[in-house]
TrEMBL record:
Note: The thiolation reaction likely consists of two steps: a first activation step by ATP to form an adenylated intermediate of the target base of tRNA, and a second nucleophilic substitution step of the sulfur (S) atom supplied by the hydrosulfide attached to the Fe-S cluster.
The name this protein goes by in its record: tRNA-cytidine(32) 2-sulfurtransferase
Cofactor note: Binds 1 [4Fe-4S] cluster per subunit. The cluster is chelated by three Cys residues, the fourth Fe has a free coordination site that may bind a sulfur atom transferred from the persulfide of IscS.
UniProt organism field: Thermomonas beijingensis
Keywords, in A-Z order: 4Fe-4S, ATP-binding, Cytoplasm, Iron, Iron-sulfur, Magnesium, Metal-binding, Nucleotide-binding, RNA-binding, Transferase, tRNA processing, tRNA-binding
CDD domains, per database record: TtcA-like (cd24138)
Gene3D superfamilies for the chain: HUPs
Length: 320
């Protein structure tokens, strides 16, 4: 039977990595922890303010269901008024059970919209057979969602990335792009038009798995189209899982480190004015050319006027 034909309860769920939540007490504790972590992230990064129109991007995976569920709970007691609309992009992947999300969203009474756009045909036409399609697929998805947000006046776009995604992306950039850069909890899109927020930034993936299980969300797997995620991401995930196994708590330690950065203890002169550090006098320092040529070269001004610029991930960095 094709997945599209499956009744709601039969939509395959992801295999939970964590132990199932044993009783109501534990389930309540888990729900409370998630609300606490999401509330803290919202406050720490100023993610939501009075009058915001928040578009929650819903893929049908455990992360976005959890995000929507926890935000709806927090909305009831929030110190500010904001609206929530769940938005899903039906990308027309073969096997996508298109009835699942409308049925679920109607059952909980949340405002929602399903965008229908056949990005799947585009991706499968452009990407050679056997190659991973996820990167282009995600880019097209992002484009469609951002366009919808802009035309409908949403002030915030909420995504379901969690703590483990943030750590994972950090290592991907470190190992494969030689960059200390990650996935920030809040960012301005490259065109400056959208504020993207990730309220699950402090939440562990295995907590989300356990939560999704207790809530019985009708999970739609993201691999219905048969594409595999890219090899580098897989390698990093495998490494992190092994590290966590060898030293429980290591992912949490690394996630905390992402929020405790000391530019003066790294080696990026764009972030920290090493030239001015301990400098005696006002004379300009010789530049690299002068040092390499071994001549008393014309000095270039070295005093750095630090001003913020944005890197490609939307993070503010300082640049001379
Ligand atoms: S698994 Fe398929 S639907 Fe999911 S991101 Fe990759 S290409 Fe897109």
């Amino acid at each position: 039977m094709h997945t599209m034909d499956l009744p709601l309860a039969d939509v395959p769920a992801r295999t939970p990595r964590s132990a199932p939540v044993a009783n109501k007490y534990q389930a309540d504790k888990l729900a409370k922890r998630l609300r606490h972590q999401v509330g803290r992230a919202i406050a720490d990064f100023g993610m939501i303010e009075d009058g915001d129109k928040v578009m929650v991007c819903l893929s049908g995976g455990k992360d976005s269901y959890t995000l929507l569920d926890v935000l709806l709970q927090l909305q009831k007691k929030a110190p500010v008024n904001f609206s929530i609309t769940a938005v899903n992009l039906d990308q027309k992947q073969p096997g996508f059970p298109e009835h699942v999300l409308p049925e679920y969203l109607s059952s909980i009474g949340v405002d929602y919209h399903i965008i229908e756009q056949d990005t799947y045909s585009v991706v499968s036409r452009v990407i050679p057979e056997g190659k991973t399609m996820c990167s282009l697929c995600s880019r097209l998805r992002r484009g469609a969602l951002y366009t919808y947000a802009e035309t409908h006046g949403f002030t915030k776009i909420a995504l379901g990335h969690h703590r483990d995604d943030l750590v994972n992306t950090f290592f991907l950039n470190l190992f494969f792009h030689a960059k200390l850069s990650g996935m920030p909890p809040k960012l301005l899109s490259d065109d400056g038009k959208h504020v993207v927020i990730r309220p699950l930034a402090y939440v562990r993936e295995d907590d989300i798995e356990a939560y999704a299980e207790t809530k019985g969300f009708p999970i739609i797997p993201c691999n219905l189209c048969g594409s595999q995620e890219n090899l580098q991401r897989k390698q990093v995930k495998k490494m992190l899982v092994q590290w966590e196994k060898d030293a429980p708590g290591r992912i949490e330690t690394m996630a905390r480190a992402l929020g405790d950065i000391r530019p003066s203890q790294l080696s990026d002169p764009k972030l920290f004015d090493f030239l001015a550090l301990g400098k005696r006098g006002d004379d300009a320092l010789p530049n690299a050319h002068a040092w390499l040529a071994g001549t008393a070269a014309e000095a270039e001004p070295v005093a750095m006027a630090l001003h913020p610029v944005r890197n490609h991930d939307g993070l503010d960095i300082l640049k001379s």
